[in-house]
Amino acid sequence: MSDVMDWDAAYRGHIFAGPPPWNIGKPQPTIANLIAAGQVHDPVLDAGCGVGDLTLALAQAGHDVTGIDISTEAINHAAEQATSRGLTARFIQGDARDLAALGLGEPQFSTVIDCTLFHSLPIDARDDYLRGTSAAANPGAHLYLLVFTTDSLPTDSPCPVPNLVTEAEVRDAVAKHWTVDSIEPSHVAVRLPDIPNLPKHNFRTDEDGLTYLPALLLTAHKTA
Ligand SMILES: C[S@@+](CC[C@H](N)C(=O)[O-])C[C@H]1O[C@@H](n2cnc3c(N)ncnc32)[C@H](O)[C@@H]1O
């Protein structure tokens, strides 16, 4: 199955006629709430970290965090930001489908955060990815996975549309490798570009120009 998009091209501004919609300059509010609630324990893996808004915020807060992403463009940007801000975070460019190939095959993380990576993967890559995250997790570690639902975006848009999920679909996929604790309605905040065919909607927007698209937050743990 083909990739959702050319991620480097997206980060170079060639797909959305500007920065990608998910680059909001700060962690997703849903994930920020988890951090504020003390639910993120070190060491942390930020899987599909993009330009590192979350990884860097965690580093800034003193967390031991590793960000991985397939996009060289995004990882370079994240690493430059860490250097210029004097933050310590580990960034690895590579494919989340094979964490072992990135030196992340053994249990070492107490929190795995998937902030919109799952729906960015080809469907046939999900199982390898989830198996790898579980293998890289310490016993008792938590997985937080924020994912777009089927009512988030129109599938017939000329813009690349991620692999949107139903609740049952994401639960079944994750449950093969993790113990699922909860799945709650949530949102992904984006700078919504002009998407043709976007169905009429009343998605919430805020004073910063962010639009809140429907999503699910799945929480799971690795059985000790
Ligand atoms: C929607 S973006 C989210 C980025 C970041 N988590 C955020 O919230 O800003 C999805 C990210 O997944 C990355 N990605 C896609 N496929 C990947 C793969 N196979 N392995 C690692 N990263 C991947 C993309 O490069 C992109 O940065």
Automatic annotation (TrEMBL):
Q: Name one GO molecular function term.
A: methyltransferase activity
All residue ranges annotated as the Methyltransferase domain in the record: 44-140
Could you tell me the superkingdom of the organism this chain comes from?
A: Bacteria
Q: Which UniProt keywords apply?
A: Methyltransferase, S-adenosyl-L-methionine, Transferase
State the Gene Ontology BP annotations. Answer: methylation
Q: What InterPro entries does this protein map onto? A: Methyltransf_25, SAM-dependent_MTases_sf
Q: Pfam families in the record, alphabetically?
A: Methyltransf_25 (PF13649)
What SUPFAM superfamilies does the annotation carry? S-adenosyl-L-methionine-dependent methyltransferases
Q: What protein is this chain from?
A: SAM-dependent methlyltransferase
Species of origin reads Mycolicibacterium brisbanense
Write the lineage as a comma-separated list: Bacteria, Bacillati, Actinomycetota, Actinomycetes, Mycobacteriales
